[in-house]
Inverse folding.
């Protein structure tokens, strides 16, 4: 018996997910956290004679510890691709697929490791967001990647391209 196609697919159906890789998550957080600890330790154990250098070490060390904490929190989230948007599992929308102009996974794209860059048609109204080691959004660009595995990010980027091409009418309709 042939499968019956649903004429109106659910727009909230999750087509693919991107989960930060646990080893990358721990490594990234650990390296940035260790940098912060080392800088604070150096400032405390062998303080430089110059007050500016001491302030530099303390500020950079505390900033690294804060960034490490932010990386750990940001990489606890799963990204979900639906037929209408790419979003965090908690509901925060990165972008709607009808806003997408292009998707770039090339070597020379300004993108995170193992990820992709999405250029939007117009500047986003959702504001700038930086979820370290997972994704960022600024002006007309959204970049996804970092602590994510390329094996998960690549299919999501390809699905976004396909869905956007279907929306623009650049691909033939699927057979029924």
């Amino acid at each position: 018996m042939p499968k019956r196609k649903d004429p109106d697919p659910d727009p909230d159906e999750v087509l693919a997910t991107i989960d930060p890789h646990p080893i990358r998550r721990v490594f990234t957080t650990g390296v940035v956290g260790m940098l912060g600890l080392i800088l604070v330790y150096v400032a405390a154990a062998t303080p430089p004679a110059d007050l500016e250098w001491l302030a530099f070490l303390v500020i950079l060390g505390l900033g690294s510890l804060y960034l490490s904490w932010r990386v750990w929190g940001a990489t606890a989230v799963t990204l979900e691709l639906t037929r209408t948007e790419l979003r965090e599992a908690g509901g925060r929308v990165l972008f709607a697929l009808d806003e997408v102009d292009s998707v770039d996974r090339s070597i020379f794209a300004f993108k995170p490791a193992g990820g992709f860059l999405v250029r939007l048609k117009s500047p986003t109204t959702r504001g700038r967001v930086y979820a370290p080691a997972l994704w960022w959004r600024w002006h007309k660009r959204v970049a996804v990647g970092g602590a994510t595995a390329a094996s998960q990010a690549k299919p999501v980027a390809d699905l976004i391209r396909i869905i956007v091409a279907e929306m623009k009418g650049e691909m033939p309709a699927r057979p029924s």
